[in-house]
Amino acid sequence: MSGMINTEQDNQSRRIFLKSTLTGAISLAAFPALALAQEQDTTELSGREKDRKFNDKGPPLDEALVFEFVQKCHFDLDIVKSMLPKEPNLLNSCWDWGSGDFETGLGGASHMGNREIALYLIEHGARTNIFAATMLGHLDIVQGFLNRYPDMINCKGPHGISLMRHAEKGGKESKDVLDYLKTLSE
Q: Taking the domain 63-185, which CATH number applies?
């Protein structure tokens, strides 16, 4: 009987030993594979997802603040000047009106012909574009764009507003640009 108990105890001990050894071996073998799988997962992320995952710059700006800033950039320089120092990241923030209609503060100032606000934003580092250059009367910039990319004559800015309309809103400072655009439209 005692030999039988020993055999059962030995078998039990062997099972425990084998189970713990096998579990340990699987863990050791799986860990590098798990690390590799995690690395592969991150390499399959898009650039934007990687930026968010590894270069988190903090939470998005408050939507109400972005909306207010973009709205005020249409017509209220004093408020723009008070808001920007408090939240400098508003400078290039963008409001999504829906259906691909995105607007920055500079975009709002540009299609309203608000030269003072547009220049203030540009002086503080706003990303400028052909619409702002058109409204501001920068003929050399507009010609450069349109010589290189002629189809941009038909591109639309925020709210679907044309280059021609931006030039009209620029007034006398953008008269040369307006005249130039008219020659391209004929």
A: 1.25.40
